[in-house]
């Protein structure tokens, strides 16, 4: 039997129109993951600092008890989703399908360092350019190899384009450090590659957007967030599918985020400490 009526029956839900989301995964603290707890903390704390007032969602893919305890009792995101390891692609698809299509959501891997102002810089580009698929604040030269053809073509027709080695050597070096690549090899590897920047109605941006950190309108990007049986799916098809769909992808000219890797090196540690978190 039921007596009376649930008092929440007629209550309307309220959902945020902006969300900063991160997919975390720390199965243990051994081997590859030995120092990743500090990496994830650095990511989440710096991300929140640079997005004041923006609700934070964390999707955790089967992390160890220590990670879960820190998330629940210290970090305390606005929304915390705990699941078995369903894989990054499946978590991403779920996150972008669970909010209103008009919601602006930034999604990040758990090994990024964010600099103050990152949210505002991304949102400004998202609202400035037409027909945007996704926006990033992490400039990486090699990202232009895929998923950016349409954006470069659009830029040549609709804006003022400049090309060259625009990403600084320091930023390129940081990228190599974070993925364990020798910088001399990187310089030879990318000797013939150039960066493309478009100026459109007074605003400049790189003509690509990296998959490890991006912002998008949920309803626009959700159809391209495909599910996968692989825990670590290849991200290039995701970037390319957005390009093939005719959607534009841009990155802030100033670097507002960088990849850390699985170790917080001295430079990252110094930059993080300077934020006085």
Keywords for this entry:
277 residues, alpha/beta, Spore Coat Polysaccharide Biosynthesis Protein SpsA, Chain A, five-stranded mixed β-sheet
Explain this structure.
With 277 residues, this protein is α/β, with parallel strands linked by helices. The chain has a single domain, classed as Spore Coat Polysaccharide Biosynthesis Protein SpsA, Chain A (Alpha-Beta Complex), CATH 3.90.550. It has ten helices and twelve strands. The strands form three sheets. Strands 3-2-1-4-10 form a five-stranded mixed beta sheet, sandwiched between helices. A five-stranded mixed beta sheet has the order 6-11-9-8-7, covered by helices on one side. A two-stranded antiparallel ribbon has the order 5-12. Strand 8 and strand 9 form a beta hairpin. The radius of gyration is 19 Å and the shape is globular. The model has no long low-confidence stretch (mean pLDDT 94).
Q: What's the helix and strand layout?
A:
Blueprint: E1 18-24, H1 36-49, E2 56-61, H2 65-75, E3 79-83, H3 88-97, E4 104-109, E5 112-114, H4 118-128, E6 132-136, H5 149-158, E7 160-164, H6 169-179, H7 183-189, E8 195-200, E9 203-206, E10 213-217, H8 218-221, H9 236-244, E11 248-252, E12 257-259, H10 266-274
Parallel strand pairs: 1-2, 1-4, 2-3, 6-11
Antiparallel strand pairs: 4-10, 5-12, 7-8, 8-9, 9-11
